[in-house]
Amino acid sequence: MARWGGCVQSPVMTGVIALAGGGPFVANDDLDRRLLAEAGADRVVVLPTADAFEHPTRAIDSATEWGERLGVRVDGRLVLRRADANDVAHAHAVERARMVYLVGDSPLHLRSVLKDTAVFDALRAVVANGGVVAATGPSAACLCDPMTDPRGGAFTLGLGLVTGLAVLTEAETWSPERLHRTLALASGFAVGVLPSGAALLRDDAGWEQVGKAEVHGDLIE
Predict the structure, then answer these.
(1) How many C-beta atoms surround the C-beta of residue 157 within 10 A?
(2) CA-CA 20 to 30 A from 146: which of 91, 155, 189, 219?
(3) pLDDT tens, 50-95?
(4) Residue pair 103/139 in contact by the 8 Å Cβ criterion
């Protein structure tokens, strides 16, 4: 693991933002155990928002099995539309959580649902209150601004929970040509290359690389 301070901007931190490359509820158990312990979480809110069109209840079922394995209760929330993301009950459940986990493969849908909503404000509150916001795969890419655009590998606007950093997730599935082309498009921001099982963590001490995470761009002030 490597840690550094740097110029990447993020909300006022007291908690942790965890961006994992892939393998939700399968490939990150050691890291998840660490995050749960650091947050003191016995309940995890799971948002399968980015799987709204791909059987989101299956993600909750996988999360429930993961929770049983790691000894935590899973509160799956079907926040699938903007109306859901502004629902007071969902927002309160997220804000009270010590750890929230976002999963799913459509970052564009995730962005359209959460941007400027009560649930997104609640995610910011989780971090400000010392909790953990974790996301895996394309959902992790969406928390950043810039965000990797799945339609072609360029960059577009993301949710901006973290700014000045883009992440290329499930990097083991990228061809060398696509990876090279996307990295060449990055200008003025850092890029994290995250295969499944790797992650970047942000807390008050700065950024930490976990596993085979790579960072392209100068993050040192």
Answers:
(1) 12
(2) 91
(3) 999 989 999 999 999 999 999 999 999 999 999 999 999 999 999 9
(4) yes
Residue 175 falls within a domain, yes or no?
no
Query: Domain range for residue 131?
Result: 13-143+195-215
Residue 182 CA to its chain's centroid (Å): 20
Q: Does pTM top 0.85 for this prediction?
A: yes
**Overall number of domains in the chain:** 1
Instruction: Provide the pairing of β-strand 43-50 with 16-20.
Output: unpaired
3-state secondary structure of 24: coil
Note whether 135 and 18 are within 8 A (CB). Answer: yes
What is residue 26's DSSP assignment?
T
In CATH, what number is assigned to the domain containing residue 45? Answer: 3.40.50.880
Task: Specify if 190 maps to a domain.
Answer: no
